[in-house]
Structure formats: C-alpha cells, structure tokens
Amino acid sequence: MTERAVYLVDGARTPFLRARGKPNAFHAADLLLGAAKPLLLRQPFAPQAFDEVIVGCVMPSPDESNIARIMALRLGCGERMPAFTVQRNCASGMQALDSASRNIAHGYADLVLTAGVEAMSHAPLLFRPEMVAWLADWRRAKTLGQKLKMLSRLRAGYFAPVIALLKGLSDPVVGLSMGQTAENLAWRFGISRDEMDRYALQSHQRLAAAVEKGYLEEIVALYASSGKLYDHDDGLRADSSLEKLAKLKPVFDRPYGLVTAGNSAQVTDGAAVLILASEDAIEKYDLPVLARLHPAAWAGVDPAQMGLGPTHAIAQLLQQCDMALSDIDYFEINEAFAAQVLACVKTLADDEYCRNELGLDAALGEIPLERLNLDGGGISLGHPVGASGARIVLHLAHVLARENAQKGIASLCIGGGQGGAMLVERT
Which fold has domain 6-123+266-425? Predict the structure, then answer.
C-alpha cells in the first residue's frame, strides 16, 4: 500500500512560562485551548471537520484524564469526535504528531488536530505510602477507641510530601535523575563546564535575537482570569553572561558536577497545537501548506545515557529516508541539557562511536552549530515535557520557510533511554 503524503497546515503555541515554585495561572487544558482557539478561528473549516484529536501529555492533572477528549469537546469538535492522549515522556508531543501522520499516511484520516502540552508547575504533591495506609485504616476506624488508637500511630514523618515532578524526572530502572544522566555524558565525552555554559549563553542570546526580530510568529497570547497578559516566553535571561553562569553551583552531582540550573532546560508550562492534513483535505478546503512531515524514527539507548537518543534516532531517520546528514539544512535538537546536545553533536561526527554504537562504516557527519537551534531552545525558553516535541517541529517548519531552506530534522532525547527524530520538508 502506497503511503500518502502528510502536510503541516498551520500551528500555534502558547508562551512558555517558567514554574516558580507554585502553580501558574493555567492548567494544561487551559493552555491547549489558549493555543487552539485562535488557530481554529483562522481556518476555513469548522472544528467538526477533524477526523480525530491526538494530544501528547505526560502528567495531566487528576481532572484532565484523556486531555485530548477534553480539548476536543471544549473546542466544539462534537461529541462524536474520537480523541486520545499519548505519552512518550519528553517526546509526547512528537508522538502525537507521528500517530496522526501515520493515520493520515495509511488513509485512516484526512484532517487531524494534534498537540503537545504540559503544566509542570501543577505537578501534584503526593502522600507517602505510610500516610496512605494510615488514612485507609483511619477510614475503617468506627469507634472512638479505634480512632484514638489510630491517632497514636500517626507520625510527623508521614506528612512529608512526595514531589511528583522529581519522581517524574528520575529513571526508576537505573535510579538516576535526568540531570545525572547528563553528568554521565559530560564525563564520557569530556565536555567541560565552560563548553556547557557557552552553549547555554548562546541559547539565551539566540532567543533574545529571535524575539527582537519577531521570529517567534507561532506564539499566541494568553489572558489569565485575573486579566493578566502573557505574550512571551518568560524564561529568557537576556542579561545572561558567562560570569553569571560560572557562579552557579552544580545541582545533580554536588560538589563536583558540571550540570547546573543555568545549562539545563527550565521547568516550564506550555502547549503547541498543529493541524495535519492529507492532500485530499488540502484540496477540499484550499489549505496552505507549511511543510511536509515524514514518519518519525524512534530509537532506544541506555537509560543512564538517555541524552544520546537523538544521535540514534537521527541515524535511523536518515537511513529510513535514504539521506545523508549533509542533506539536512537545519536542526532542532531539544535542549534538555547543554551537555546532552553537545554530546549528540560529538557522537554524530565521531567515527568510533558511529561504528561501534550505530553499526555504520563511518561518522554521519558534523552538525554546524550555526544551523542548530537557530532561535534558542529548552535552556532559554523552557521544556514543558509533553509540549516540546510539537514545538520544535512547528518552529523548524517556520525556520525552513524563513531561511528558504528545504529539509530539517527535529529530534529529542527521551527520559527512560529513547530518542525520536522527524524529517520536516518544505514543499
């Protein structure tokens, strides 16, 4: 069966808003609607025209179960609209795009609303297992004597909360946080603290330049119920410097580590919403085409070195598309950590790594840094884990149009030891 072409028609995203210790103004569903409503208002078809809605999200709140269905209903897609939510950690947004792309390519759908979202500031605080067990016994206690006996068993330590966000950013198989896996890469590939900080500074400088030049055209403003306007990524530190970055202490391997808050992605809230269509849908509704999307490539790696996922996924994608690295004009590799991005660049260009780890005859080639993350990335604008995979694909499509280029690759490392990569082609 011949696969049909899949096209990115349009997209929008919210500003990415830093988590600052307490819940931000928007829940995940609010972020989705904030990006989707203005996007759909400029389309020549009704929301009911979609065949399905697919959303990537890692940690929706308890009242946002199957957040894709909530989005579909609140947008007026109709009660008959099928919708489902996917979860592939940091690449959940890309997984949503890939699931939609494959359904369109195989003829199961013509027009799909896809998205990625995360409200990391709303990650819950959980009770410890001892407290959960105590509460269960407390509910079964009926008499005054039974309740007094239960109160005598209550311990102050039971009230210490479990921070769900920290649990989610740790790998239960190898027992390492994501930051510790970045430390592993820095040690293995000899990436210095100065290299990381310079890369982090570059991320902020590039984002600042993109804001000044009006390059982030995909952002739509949000209004909180208080009336406050949010119209830009608020993690940007335009006054960042090497001196300021050098003063930051290591977070994940004290006191000798190299990974700091300054050269790591920011914990952030945000959403990106994209419309994918077949050629039939484009002709039916006379839709514009921003880019063509190809099926994603997915790879597995050692969870203790999960940041190398893009290297393996990019290698697989190039083989899948019968292309060389030199055929690609621009790259978006999600900036989970400066060490992780730099390690991917090094391994793609390393003969020994490509032979031993990828089974290739030689290195895939060098990614020119001037063609990588042209307008900054997760270090400067943040990494809402469920949203980033959708954001980098959308932004890469805009970069290709702006630079009059043809092909780009968007890629992410994925907690748990995976990598994802998608070819974006300007048509």
Answer: Peroxisomal Thiolase; Chain A, domain 1 (3.40.47)
